[in-house]
Amino acid sequence: MTIPPYLYPLAAPLLIPVARQLGKQLMSVMNGQRSSQSSELDFPSIPDKVKEDPRYIEALVEYSHRKESRLQEFNSLAITQEERRLQIRQQEISDRREISRLQRELLRELQAHEIQLKLHELDAIWNREKWFSNLSRQETERILLEGQEQHRLLMFIAPPDMSEDCPLGMRRHLKKDIGNGLRRFLNQHYPQTSNKRPVEFYADYFTRPLGDIEVRKLQMVLSPVPTFILYSDINDYEVHFHVGFWGLQNQNVSLIPIQPWNWEKAQEELISQGLSPALAIRQVRQLIVTIHQLLATFLIDWYYLSIDPHYQPHLYKLSSEFPRMWVKPYLSVLKDLQLQRREVYRQELKIIVQNDSEKQQLKSKQNPQNWNAVLTLTGHSDVVNVIAVSPNGQFMVSGGWDHQIKIWSVQTGQLIRTLKGHSNSITALAVTPDNQHLVSGSVDSTIKIWSLQTGQLLHTLIGHSYSVSALAVCPNGEFIVSGSWDNTVKIWSLATGELENTLTGHTNSVNAIAVDINSELIYSGSIDNSINFWSVKTGKIEHSFEPFQTYKTLEISSDCRFVISGSWENTIEVWSLKDGQLVHTLPGHDRDLLTLAVSPDSKFIASGSSDQTIKIWSLETGYLLRTLTGHFNSVNTLNFSADGLFLVSGSSNGVIMVWRCH
What we know:
Blueprint lengths: L7 H23 L17 H4 L2 H23 L5 H47 L8 H11 L5 E5 L3 E2 L5 H22 L9 E4 L9 H11 L4 E8 L3 E9 L7 E4 L3 E2 H10 L4 H31 L7 H4 L5 H43 L4 E8 L5 E6 L5 E6 L3 E6 L5 E6 L5 E6 L5 E6 L3 E6 L5 E6 L5 E6 L5 E6 L4 E5 L5 E5 L6 E6 L5 E6 L4 E5 L5 E5 L7 E4 L5 E5 L5 E5 L5 E5 L6 E6 L5 E6 L3 E6 L5 E6 L5 E6 L5 E6 L3 E7 L1
Parallel strand pairs: 1-3, 1-4, 2-4
Antiparallel strand pairs: 4-5, 5-6, 5-7, 8-35, 9-10, 10-11, 11-12, 13-14, 14-15, 15-16, 17-18, 18-19, 19-20, 21-22, 22-23, 23-24, 25-26, 26-27, 27-28, 29-30, 30-31, 31-32, 33-34, 34-35
Helix pairs in contact: 1-9, 1-11, 3-4, 3-11, 4-5, 6-9, 8-9, 9-11
């Protein structure tokens, strides 16, 4: 139904000042501030975790370089070369869209983590609160779960709270008019399937009117998903509009009351124009629906522009659907925000590019050498699980699913001998400091001590009840320390093979073992997410900490200063053993992170993945220094030589590669 032009001025006193009011208050909540009294417009921003994500930084740096090259070419073109100039403009638009797409994906990842935490809390929240009618537990869970798949804006409309003295035509039909009118409008212009401005709209989530208390309660369960709620109350002559909003990772709810609008005056004006009272009420309802549509359009565009400076507000294209005097102030607020967001973005981009340039210079100073593959060895018939390198750098030892241990020359790659004796996969290897003995652990629960020079089996150590997952030989060469899936750490005599002590305290498999330089402390890491410091003398835990939640692989640096863990999210975390503080978070790999190694001087970390690559990182700065390619299957195990000049890698297809740092 078309709104008569003579009604435009009647709604203008409501809509014109509301634009600036909404802009200021929404900006306040996006910045985590409760007060909305600030006279200046502050800028919302995407969360720091997104801005600091290496993928985002890398994409911005590459975009900046391409943009600079395009600008130089564009300026050198003649005006007549319009086709190429148009291509350059399209490339710029395409690049911006890709940055926006990546940003949304990173927001989705961040949101997915928050949603997972909220789902765990949902039972307690739901049982504690008395929920208002029709708030479905199942539908709420579905909304949250969909938030893990797509970053989008939620919008709810609540039934208006109408007093008994409202005209019957208003009370009977306004709820459906608002819901249907807003649903049609949003489905057409802001569908959930949109890749630019997705909105998930609900007109029937609530069966009764809302107040501020109910909005705050709803935020308790839907806080990880950015949400707008439009609700209103109507008496016999006025309508009061309200907006509730919360943004990304924000614990504050913005409750924005909008000045009342006298709908009775509009009805009287229509009747004076010759309309019947029933038709006049119908026109008033349509006017209220259109006000909701304009407010929703502004709110949605404001949100997406606030998180993305490349976003083009859709209201620019929809302005003809609303009276010009209504829409003009909303366009003005959005244009101001767009200009200011782009200026902030330009400054942020400048800083990111400058920092990246400084990092690249620092990287070249830290590690000017290149890693090159010098040997490719084949001999195992199945997955290579573990590799050790002798302290003198002459031998490397490999073990795998084929139950065999192979000893190779590091210099020539020649297979020296194959050791057979374990009845299941080899899972751990260590060479003694004097280069005389090899210690092996297996899924068969045994540990074997071999002569490295002759290959003779000297001792078989029996004591673990499940797979042996980690081994270390103490620096003084007197004892062996083993960790197992049976949750224990055991100390064995290297000379006799006798069990000297069993250390209990972990509640899950032990998968990392290290001994300090004085052979007085043992460090053990477990899948129970704890690191224990044990006294060799007493066998007691002297200290313990839990620096992370969950991880797949873990290494302790040779100087026992750092713990390096690989998470299920395929990131790498560096922790201080001294105080348990997180030192670095490295982006890791695109696919499963399978293995880690730390150089003997504790300067470098090597990581291997199912993406078939090896990455070399600076332990000091966390910078990625090199990516090594050459394997054609998952990289399962890595180890450095004692001098740090060689890196040995083993793969799922049985191939071993030796890399040399030049």
